[in-house]
Amino acid sequence: MKIVFFDIDGTLYDREDPRKIPQSALDAIRRIQADGNIVIICTGRCMSCIEPYIRQIGFDGYIAGCGTHIIYRGRELWYQTLEAETVRELDFLCKQARLMPVFEGSRYLYADERDCTGDNLRFYHFYKAFYKGKLKPIDYRADDICKLTVRVEADFEGTDAKEQKKAAVRHVAGKAELLGMTVLDKGASLEIFPRENGKGEGIRRFLTLTGLSGTTYAFGDSINDLDMMQQVDYSVALGHAHPRLLSICSCQTDDLYDDGIYKACKKLNLIS
To answer: Does this model's pTM top 0.90?
Structure first.
């Protein structure tokens, strides 16, 4: 059996590109499954952020929220949420540093419009439009929050604005780690989730919980795909991937809109 894990953003499609998932990638996924193999989404997004367009493709399961939520063939196998006090502390920490926290869960996203200005307000409205009906004010009592994304496009002023921003990011990252969180710096944002999770750990846990075995493959492009790539037998980096992924991947393919997924599947004999 072959078990194939796909990142979403930048790998299957670009959410700001009207072309969505290339037809060649959809064909490859369906052919992999038709041969009796397993195809799993492995994403930093929580389930609330995986739109019906993707779910309707028919993936066998999901490793969502950077490994905090695992679903296989409709059955929830793992879900690690944040305690209310942790959400409260992280919210206060980010807002004190003038950075925008977006808490994420299986049902909703949580962010406060009143604390957003400039680029952060633009991102707030993007989330509101893209994830229609899924964005709510931050609620410390919400029982589905498992991670957060911190937008770092804060409007610092003065000649040392860049240094203020760097200091704010370092402060939030350091304090979050003391709260038992893993922090991934993605440049424009920080991805923060409970320690002992992550995409790579999610794959390991998925295989343990399902009892599935076979040759494993992963397709990704971003820095948060690094541990996913290291967990599988064959790793595929899309043509535009982060340099650190390119340095450790088994196979580099073309850009996703140049049929990169289909070409890699052919090269690795995932499809004939």
So the answer is: yes
